[in-house]
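Chain A, query sequence.
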Amino acid sequence: MRTAQFLALYRELRISEQRAFYELRSRESQAAHEQTVTLRNVLLVLSALAGVAGQLVSGTGRAVCGVVAAVLAALAGAVTAYEALMRFSQLHKLYGDAALSLAEAEIDWDADTGDLKDRMARVEQVFLSERGQWGQLQLQESEEGES
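Chain A, predicted structure.
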């Protein structure tokens, strides 16, 4: 009885809740990546339109269109730099991979095969791997900062 309660509690609190967290963070990171790409593209299109409009007018209007085009292009560059700094696509992959690994571990957990220690070790290995990926991401950031 106590073993069954432990198994259910561990599955719910350790596996399912963490998997839900990873899935949520993965979706948030993907949405943020898509938003930054969309914003960048809109800014670039507006910049191009301002450049074209500058060809159709003369005098002060042409100068204003040129400045607007340059500012919009600079903003697009800033959005691109922000997206690269935040690494939304890498976060999406990291959290998504962890969620998939936990989903596999959850299936194995429910299959009720093997020793309890082995089953727990499998689940905990997912968390260790996820932490290791964060370490690799930090190393990557520091190496890029040095170059």
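The chain has a mean pLDDT of 91. Helices lie at 2-56, 60-86, 88-111, 116-146.
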